[in-house]
Each structure stands twice: as C-alpha cells, then as structure tokens.
Amino acid sequence: MVQSSLPVARSTMAFVLGAFACGAWLCASATAEDYTVLPRKPDLVRDAETTFLIDFSRDGDPVAFAAGERSIDPAPARDNGAATGPFTVAASRNFAPEAFTIEMILRVPTGSPAKLATPIAEWQAPENYTAVVRLDSLRIYGRQGWAGRDKEFHMAAAFAGNGMGILPQAQGKWVHLAVGTDFAAGRSGAMVRDLDGNVLLRNATFMAQGELVNTSDAADARVRWQAMAKAVAAAAGNNQPASLRFGAAGVDLRAVRISRGLRAELIEPEIAPLAENVTTDNHMRRGIPATGVASWDAKALDASRAVTERVRRAVGFDVNNAREFTIDETYVPLKPGDAPVTIKLPDLKIGLSTFTLYGTIDPAGRDWPTAGGSPSRASRPGGFRAFISMSTGPATTR
C-alpha cells in the first residue's frame, strides 16, 4: 500500500526491507494533532536584540540595560524582589513599535484583586492606535479613520478561555509571559510558560496566535495589517508612543525584557513532529521517541531539496488539548519520478527495531476517502513531508 501510494518510496522501501534481518518496520500515521510542544526556559538576559531589561530581584538599580533613557517613573514599591505597583518606561530607543517582543516574569498573589482584564502593560500613539497586555490577552486597536485607515484594526491574541487562565488556575505561581507583534509581517502572538519552560499547565489555551477580530477574510486581513504597519511606522517617526506603562496593583512583576523584532521562538510554540504514540493521562499523545537510536529531519534527509513554508497545523498535547497555529514547516517534497530519499543506518544490534515515518501525502491524482464531504487529514495538499526516526524495541502499529 505504501509503495502504490508513494511511487518514490519504492527504492527506499527496498532499502528498508534490506534491514529486515534486524527486524525493521516502517510506519506512517496521520492523527488529530500534528505537533507537540517543547519546553523553553525563560532567559531574560541582555543580547543583541534587547533594548530594555529590568530585574527587580537585583539589589539597587533594577534597570540592567536600557538602549534609551534608564529611569523608570515612579519608582514602584518592591517586595521580595518584585515590583508591586505600576511604573512607566520611556519608549524612545527602548521600544521598537513596528516589531517587538515583551517578556515579563510575573505572579498574581493569592487574594489579589486583579482580574483577567487587568492591564499589566500598555502604550498608545494618540489618534493612531492603542495597545494593551492584560492577564488574558494582547490587544491592539486602531480606530477606522485614524492615521488614514479606512478600516478598523482590532487584533487579539487571547491566552485565556474555556475556563482556563492565569486566574484562577495559576494564582500564586510565577509565570513567564511573552507577547510580540511584527506589523509588516502581519504576525502576532502570546505564550505563557511556567519557569521550567513548559506551556503553563501543559494546556494549549496558554498558546495564542494573534487574529483580527473584525474580519475572517485573508485578503482583507492583509490589507488591514499593511495599513496598520504604515500607521505604526508613521507614529514611530513622530516619537509615538512616548512611553510604556507596566505593572498593576495586585500583580507582582519580577522582570521585564523588551526586544526589537518578533522573537518567534518565544511567542510561538517550539514544536517537534509527532512520531510515536505514548499514553499519558488516559490520552494518546505523540512525540519523538526519547530513546531513539537516530532521527533525520528534512534538512538531514536532503538539505538541497528541503523547503520551508508557513502552514496551518494543530499544535498541542493530545487530541482534546491543541490549537491551530500557522507555523514554519520544513520538509522534503517528493513527487512521482523524483529521486528517493535515502538514509544511512547506524550500526544495529541483532533484535527488533522500529522505523517511524512522519509526513503527509500529496492527493494529486489519487482517489482519497473523505470525512463529512471533505478530504481526510492524510490528503492535505503540499506533498509528502517526512520526519524519520528510529528506535529499538517492539514495533507499534497504527
């Protein structure tokens, strides 16, 4: 079946079949979520993209670095290495509004009066746009008619919902919140992690990609983003916004880092192809085998043919705990008649080994089954995309 569906895989299959003396198997699967999420520990230190860094756990001056004015006004009250009230930071050179990332290490103490809608960072360019980071979302709003816009701009990246949120689920816990936007690229998002780097509570609700509230048409969305990008650039040329306000009563703020540019690794999930079924919490979830002998991603399979594109995929932790994201996906497209992809096997001991193949199959010219009148997930366009891993032990079937 694999050979008839994937003509290019025939010689590869023959190669794999040659390994059957040590018990190799080739498996392929397509299921409800496409990628799992890898942890990334917060690391709020100065680097080449940092424009402002403040750490209230430091003794003395909490400002560790400022590309522009260092002072914060007013100096907030501090308790146990955290600011407990609001303060402002000058925007000039400390903040690049056209494309930025803001990170905060924060905690909502037990008994705090804060609500999900409480602003913890906000800035504005008068008669142009306003932006606010709340405990549930990043929101940027530009009124129709302002700054020459003939359409309203309203973007939200919501990291709360379905009964989940920093409040009440993570009240009393330190979290790492990262938000970012690149207006010219039309990209925005937010991510909440614990201090071990895991998505908070391992719940996909805390991963958010920015979406326009007032349109679902892709072409219209591009027009709105482009108009907003021009408006933000014009405001920046007039030194707007003048300042950013951080903090709130009832919220402990330990550190803030502002960076120029969108740090996609912070505001988008760091993903891994799903290649093996593992049972956790009564659900089937998948990830790269931790005990694998070897693995080959697209660039390792054939760097000369590997391509990267932005695609829509389901990212999360199990079938009922995932969100749709537009992500960068690198793959090797294989069409009928293309040269096969080959891999060099490591030394294999006599025994049973498992090969796992991750990809999709180009539906062109094939009669695929449908579900509810739509093509099945296995028939997504885009060619055959492979991630291959190998591990020792019993083979699993799908």
Task: Give an overview of the whole structure.
With 398 residues, the chain is mainly beta. The chain has 2 domains: 2-38 and 270-392, no CATH class; 50-267, Jelly Rolls, CATH 2.60.120. The protein is 11% helix and 37% strand. The chain contains 6 helices and 27 strands. The strands form 7 sheets. It has an 8-stranded antiparallel beta sheet, with helices on one face. It has a 7-stranded antiparallel beta sheet with strand order 4-3-17-7-12-13-14. A 4-stranded mixed beta sheet has the order 1-24-27-21. Strand 12 (174-182) and strand 13 form a beta hairpin. The relative contact order is 0.19. Mean pLDDT is 81; it is low at 1-32, 275-291, 374-387 and 393-398.
Question: Can you tag this structure with a few keywords?
Answer:
Jelly Rolls; seven-stranded antiparallel beta sheet; 2 domains; single chain; mainly beta; eight-stranded antiparallel beta sheet; 398 residues; 6 helices; disordered C terminus
Q: Say how many strands there are.
A: 27
The separation of the N and C termini measures: 14 Å
Strand content: 35-45%
| Largest beta sheet: strand ordering | 5-6-16-8-9-10-11-15
So how many helices? 6
User: What is the domain total for the residues?
Assistant: 2
- Mean pLDDT over all positions: 81
